[in-house]
From TrEMBL:
Its main location: membrane. Residues 100-556 form the Amino acid permease/ SLC12A domain. It is found in: Membrane. InterPro entries: AA-permease/SLC12A_dom, Amino_acid_permease_CS, APC_YAT. It comes from Debaryomyces hansenii (strain ATCC 36239 / CBS 767 / BCRC 21394 / JCM 1990 / NBRC 0083 / IGC 2968) (Yeast). This is DEHA2D10164p.
């Protein structure tokens, strides 16, 4: 009897298959998504019974044993906190707005900027390095705005991987979900390989600690951090990100002083822009290489959307994080790369990808060696090691949450949705952690670290472009779906993209053009000598996405006789969550109107700050 009642309530909350593809987390604070009034009483009773059972169960365990080992073992058991609206276990909402910003900043300021930018400088030169990152920054801004609107409207575990299924196509959603998951899964071994490369800046330590030992040490630390709850993940990211931000600010100041001659033996100025020059001689191929590496460097900016379902108040915190994170990341990237271009020539033998030295150092470290001692360079190298821990930490977080979304979408085994009593997606985390073992492949060859790092970075770079292009396409189709359902985004969404559909179309076109250009330079290498290894290094990310897409498309046709290129938006039911019924929609409209009236009464500088920050 109880079972049938639960089933009836669940069916009321999910009107049809289209809307059920996207399950909204009901734990959202601040005018959270409401249940239909007819079900409210029964759901409250069930929540009360579940809470009593959970408390009783925990008290029993606490009384049974005070042994911390027993408690730790007990914490790995499946949680009994079930979402009675969706029938799924829930992640914990423990991330505040500051944590969201730090997670996105921490995920973005990593080896892509601090180490991978050396490859960009070597391939393109100082000016193409800067122009490539500026181009990608404009693209990232459009993506962030689109993702901010989507995440506030539909804050779900898995974010845009679920949006793709609902708004674009099941097969494309499947391909992008696994693409994004693999993008983060391979990031962990890449970070571990980067750690072994970074240590080599100190020859004494490198002689004492072989590569496999460095990998093992960092691997163990990242595993330990991810076995804690999401609250501690946010805490670690705040600490790591603050350290990186402070280090980048110090680098900008010290680097400027080195360039103008306040620190060091000579005034460098624009010396290296004259000799060897500002262009590496690789032309268009070199510039596209810079752009792809830049896309990889900016990866992590989308983590604000991924963490929305675990935010305490996504309506307020996600828009603020989206806007502030972009400006901070761009500021750090563009100013620091300008300084790097002044202090490090693109012909430096220790740059990653130059293949002229056994030591592959960060251009940020090389820039600080132009002093009487290497104190600043040593400090920056320590910061790079900290950033490796930070991004490795984020890689497990993002990939495990994406695995959960794939499981909820029936695109991965349901076992991946196992969430323990500490609200950790335990099996998904275990799979994410296991990919780190791929880093040990790099120790098989003396140059294995650099080769593996460049391969993984190239694959991730093109995957990131496809991911961000998909987000902008989701936004374009989301607006159309709202229009078909007679929903006004201006009146009913707490945050709307400031550049609207124009920005999303720009972002989509840029991502497509860069992807096509990547295929072009893979076929026509700069030296004129086609190499199959270089070809696959540049296009493997696109091939992986294509395989996922076509295999899933064939499966749907063979199993269900289903074939469509795009979801018919007329069949997408948006009547869920904040759009569930007229009463809820009216409440949101009144709330937003009141907030706008209050904001219009503020001084002009506060209104300006609110728009951009």
């Amino acid at each position: 009897m109880q079972k049938s009642k639960f089933t009836r309530n669940r069916s009321n909350s999910c009107n049809n298959t289209s809307s059920s593809d996207l399950q909204i987390d009901p734990k959202i604070r601040s005018h959270s998504l409401s249940l239909p009034t007819s079900n409210a009483s029964s759901i409250r009773n069930k929540n009360s019974e579940t809470e009593k059972h959970r408390i009783k169960n925990n008290v029993t365990i606490n009384k049974r044993s005070k042994n911390p080992i027993v408690k730790i073992i007990h914490s790995f058991k499946r949680t009994e906190d079930v979402d009675l609206e969706t029938g799924e276990t829930k992640l914990k909402s423990e991330l505040n707005g500051f944590s969201l910003q730090m997670i996105a900043i921490g995920g973005s300021i990593g080896t892509g900027l601090l180490l991978g930018s050396g490859k960009s400088l070597s391939e393109g030169g100082a000016v193409p390095l800067l122009l490539g990152y500026i181009l990608v920054a404009t693209f990232i801004y459009c993506m962030c705005q689109a993702l901010g609107e989507l995440s506030v409207a539909m804050p779900v575990t898995g974010s845009f991987t679920k949006y793709s299924v609902m708004l674009i196509d099941k097969s494309w959603g499947f391909a992008m979900g696994w693409n994004y998951c693999l993008q983060w899964l391979i990031l962990l071994p890449m970070e571990l390989v980067a750690a072994s490369m970074t240590i080599k800046f100190w020859p004494v330590i490198a002689d004492y600690l072989p590569d496999y030992m460095v990998i093992t040490i960092f691997y163990a630390m990242i595993i330990c951090m991810n076995l804690l709850s999401v609250k501690y993940y946010g805490l670690f990211e705040v600490i790591f990100s603050l350290l990186k931000v402070v280090a980048i600010v110090i680098f900008l100041i010290v680097g400027l002083f080195i360039d103008i001659g306040v620190i060091g033996d000579e005034r460098i100025g624009f010396k290296y822009w004259k000799d060897p020059g500002i262009f590496s001689g690789n032309g268009f191929n070199g510039f596209i290489g810079v752009v792809v590496t830049a896309a990889f460097s900016f990866s992590g900016s989308e983590l604000v959307g991924i963490t929305a379902s675990e935010s305490r108040n996504p309506d307020k915190e996600v828009p603020k994080a989206i806007k502030q994170v972009f400006w901070r990341i761009c500021g750090f990237y563009l100013f620091s790369l300008f300084i790097v271009g002044l202090l490090v020539p693109f012909t430096h033998p220790n740059l990653v990808g130059d293949h002229k030295s056994d030591v592959n150092a960060s251009p940020f470290v090389l820039a600080l060696t132009n002093t009487k001692n290497n104190a600043f360079a040593n400090i920056m190298n320590v910061v790079i090691l900290i950033s490796i821990l930070s991004v490795g930490n984020s890689s497990i977080y993002a990939s495990s949450r994406t695995l959960i979304a794939l499981s909820e979408n029936k695109q991965a085994p349901s076992l991946l949705n196992y969430i323990d009593k500490k609200k950790r997606p335990l099996i998904a985390i275990a799979i994410s952690i296991s990919f780190g073992s791929l880093a040990y492949i790099s120790v098989l060859s003396p140059t294995g670290s650099e080769i593996m790092f460049l391969w993984l970075m190239s694959i991730s770079g093109i995957s990131v472009l496809c991911t961000y292009g998909t987000i902008t396409l989701c936004h374009i189709r989301f607006r159309k779906a709202l229009r078909l359902n007679d929903i006004s985004y201006k009146e009913e969404l707490p945050f709307c993209s400031q550049i609207g559909l124009t920005g999303s179309w720009y972002g989509l076109v840029v991502s497509i053009v860069i992807a096509i250009s990547q295929i072009y330079i893979a076929i026509t290498p700069v030296n004129g000598h086609f190499a199959i290894a270089d070809f696959f290094q540049k296009v493997l990310g696109l091939l992986v996405i294509s395989i996922f897409y076509f295999v899933h498309k064939i499966y749907l046709y063979a199993r269900y006789g289903e074939f469509q290129l795009l979801v018919d938006l007329k069949t997408v039911d948006m009547k869920f969550g904040r759009f569930a019924n007229d009463q809820i929609r009216q409440e949101f409209r009144e709330k937003f109107q009141q907030e706008r009236i209050i904001m219009n009464q503020k001084p002009w500088y506060i209104k300006t700050y609110n728009v951009w920050c």
